[in-house]
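Help!! Second protein's tokens look totally different from the first
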Amino acid sequence: MTTQLFMIRHAESLYVSGAERTRGLTEQGQEAVRQVTAIMNEIRVDVVVSSPFGRAIMTVQGIADERGLEILTFEGLRERLITSPEQEVPNEERLAAIKRSFSDPDFAYPGGETTRQAAERAMPVIKDLLEQYRGQTIVMGTHGNMLTIILNQYDKAYDFTFWESTTMPDIYRLDFQGNVLAGVERLWK
């Protein structure tokens, strides 16, 4: 019995210092959400879940609305903090920290969260969803780091290079046989 998990990375959102949880989508991001909703239109969806962050919820809202489903949010699926929210870090430094965090899962920039810590809070949610909705279809609003961290728990080939290749938005279908990841397919562009 196959369970499908559609991991949908949020659409484009401008960074706003101090607004990590609440920042919304750009105009381009809103247009991309319409495309995501259209791609998912022909797919049966049993449950929609998300990170509690606004941009992730907004990206899957149309999918839920078209089916009359509530979006269930899970704190364990929130985006990983790379640095302290109060700390401004140059982009190249932030990218170097993300890269190192995938080769050293216990590394964190001061004030940030390690890959291991993020996985330890997200994976119980994933395992519970796979158990509760076995044989069904789950749509999940997520973030680039969390998408990569979750996939990395099943296959180490999903690393910094993979993270760099993802787009905003992005859609990956994960096929599970029980709790075993049996296949991954990218559906976005």
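Here's the second one for comparison:
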Amino acid sequence: MTSTYLKVMRPAQVTVGPHIKKIAIVNRTVPEKKAVNIIEGILTGEMPGRDKQGVQKAIDGLQESFINSPRFEVIRTNEELKGSGIGDMLPTPLNWTVITDLCKKYQVDAILAVENYDSDFIITKGDKINKKVNEKGDTIKVLEYYAEGIATVNLGYRLYDPQKKAIVDQLQNSNKNKWNTKGNSVQDALVQLIDANTAIQRVSFASGGNYGSRITPNWVSVRREFYKKNKRDSYFTIGSRKAQVNDWNGAADYWLKATQSRSSKVAGKACYNLALAYEVLGDLDGAKKWVTTSYADYGNKKARRYSYLIDGRIWEMQKLNEQMSQAN
């Protein structure tokens, strides 16, 4: 088998009301008590302004996820509102008068607030003995020096709907990533390790993008497999060649002919491939029909798993149509 990738639009996890079309993003991570924040920075060794940069990176991620989706129009504001300033606890929701005033100011239907932010970067280092195979094929023990950095970002979000005076969604989550390096010494490994600022900004950006995908439909790339060739059937092989150059209509024509093969094994694989062609061309009902035939009539085991994927796509498409029709 060989693989191909196709772009599909995934529905949002949270369905937002159709009256919300324009959203303004505000930063609510300014601490209530700056002195506490300064002391925290000294105790944890945080660099001045690191969290502020991290918040902006999170908003960058949010903004990009909205740009990649046709559901909302988004305005990025320079508003900086006071919040809790405490790592992983959401502050008291903003007053509805404040929300209404912000919506009027920016001519939007809802406010998306980054409610809190906290970051940390931990480094572990040392040496360990690993087993390796040398040039002679012998297994030997080698002393290796390593360094590992773990960036953790806690972020809280709320989406405020002033028309219904309701919080459409709120989420407090923690995002992590780790980096590993090796060297001739511990110091050598540390020199190669990613710096704390860069690591935290990357995790912050990813967190913002992940939350954006939670409330707005987004394009994603999915991997699919199909049978590449078959010596028993030239139609089958020609169809696969056409698929490899993205001629999916042509591939479907030849795979349809291959479904009439005298070999039930070839016919089952052709039905499987034909289901993929229909999915790529946007006909999920047709894809479901052919993948079902592949498994039910010819016993193609791979078709059973693919059938579940198609069922998921059909459900997602129904949800997506609901969300996008509301927007329109």
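Reply: Different proteins will give different token patterns, so don't panic. Confidence is low (pLDDT under 50) at residues 35-48.
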